[in-house]
Structure formats: C-alpha cells, structure tokens
Amino acid sequence: MVKYLSLYILLLISFVSCDYFRPAQDEAAVARVNETYLYEADILKILPENYTKADSTILVNDYINRWATRQLLVQGAELNLEESTQEEFDRLVEQYKSDLYSKTYLEALVYKSLDTLVSLEEASAYYEENKEAFKLNEELIKFRYINVDENRPDLEDITMKFKRYSAQDKHELDSIAIQFKSYSLKDSVWIRLGQAVNKIPVITAENKNELLKKSNFIQRKDSLGLYLMQINEVLLRNETAPLEYVKPTIDQIVINKRKLELIRQLEKDITTDAIKNKQFETYN
Question: Which GO terms of the molecular function aspect are on file (predicted)?
Fold first, then answer.
C-alpha cells in the first residue's frame, strides 16, 4: 500500500513544473510554499491503516491544501506583523513548550508516587473538620420500590414481603426481581430525591413530598402497573450530608491536596539536587 501511495504522489506532482520543487534535502517532496517543503513522509503519517485508493486521494489532496493554506498564512504574518508582535508570539510559544514539558514530566513523577487510597479514618477526620461545607442543596432519601402487574396472583404475598422486608423477604424478592417491570431494592443507599422522581412515573412534582416522610409506605398505580414504595430515611435541604454520601468527594479533595503537596516537594527536590550536583547555580 505504501508503494502504491508513492506512485500516486509522484503522479500527483508530475503535473507541476519541476522548477517548483527544489527540496532542501533528499526526501521526496510533494508540495512547496516558497522555501518550505512538504515531504512524502509527512503524508504517510496522516493516512489511516487499511486506506483505500479513494480514501488516499481525498486525504492527500485535503492535507496538502490545508498545509499550503497554513504555510501561506504563517509566512504572510511573518512579513506583515510588527517585529515586537512576532517576538511576543515567539516568547509565548517557548513558554507554552516549557510549560507543556514541565507539566507532563511532573505528572509522570506524580503518577508513580501518588497514594490514591483514602482510608475511612482519614475521610472521617476531614468530614468532621469541614461539616459546614457539606450542607445539602437537595433532599436525600433511602428507599426501595417495585413496579409489578396489579393482576399478579401472588400480589398480596409480594406486598407483604415488600413491607415487612426481613432478610428472608429480601432474598425472595431479589430472586423474582427479574419479573418486575422495574425495581430498586438497595434501600441502604442514599439517593437524590430528583433521581427517584425521574425513575418512577407516578411520582410527580405535585406529590413528590410523599417521599420525604420517613417510614412512609406508598402504593400507587398507572397504566404500567402497581408501584410499591417504602421510605426508610430522609435528609432535607440544608441538613448535613452523611459521610457515606460525600466520601467520593472527600476522597478527591484529599487526593488533590496530596498531589499539590507532592508537586511542591518534587519541585523543591529537583532544584536542591541540581544545586548539589552543580547543575544549577546563580551568579551574584
């Protein structure tokens, strides 16, 4: 395929006078803008694997045209922009290159050294010290629900087990959950009230406050069947979020703090080592 592309490029450039192609090196050039050349090797890099003849023709032509436009714009800018502007651009380019290299190198060092495990003890300590930062801006609930066909012959038995919800009841409901139209039996997990409203069609903006009554059992039906809901716990807006709900957030905060501290230490160590090894010195 590479051999085919080489032949294609040679055919492509054969329509242009040889006077327009004076490569500064021995590589095969495919285009020129003044004294800047585009080489066959540059074209090969942009072609995907398993490209077809049609694909290569379109890609090569498009790439050459975009390359030429970019070169003409850059060279036009170099001729017309004030020298001070060009010097500022050069400074910005060098600064960006320096920042990019430094950031990438530091991230590689951090990746090898950063401890990303946050113990419950550490998360709990941070939580206790910063409780005011974890006030809820929306209600949370722990609840379970099932959506079943109201004509099921075992509906009464299912309802009894759902309300009582002993360990045995939970096991039996789990075992037949695939028969329910929809369900969520993980009632030990805090979720946002909005999630429950979005999940259950019979709960609307008008009646959603029924989900904010602790230990409340709700039974409603619509065209999709019967909904059984049991509210276990409720936390209202402006109350303190529980640790288990905010622990993922705390974990990220703690890890980010570690990362910043590690970066500062790495920068300090790199400079100290450079001074020690006489790689860095200042002249007073």
Answer: isomerase activity
Beta bridge partners of 184: 145
Q: Which amino acid belongs to residue 199?
A: K
Nearest 5°: the CA angle 263, 269, 274 is 130
What's the rounded Cα separation, in Å, for the pair 197 and 201? 7
Residue 45 to residue 172: CA distance in whole angstroms? 60
pTM summary value: 0.71
Calpha distance 137→249 (Å, rounded): 15
Q: How confident is the model at residue 25 (pLDDT cuts 50, 70, 90)?
A: low
Strand-pairing partners, residue 235, are: 140
CA distances from 277 to 47, 106, 269, 274 (A): 46, 20, 12, 5
User: Residue 119: phi, psi to the nearest 5?
Assistant: -70, 160
pLDDT (tens digit, 9 = 90+) per residue, 248-271? Answer: 999 999 999 999 999 999 999 999
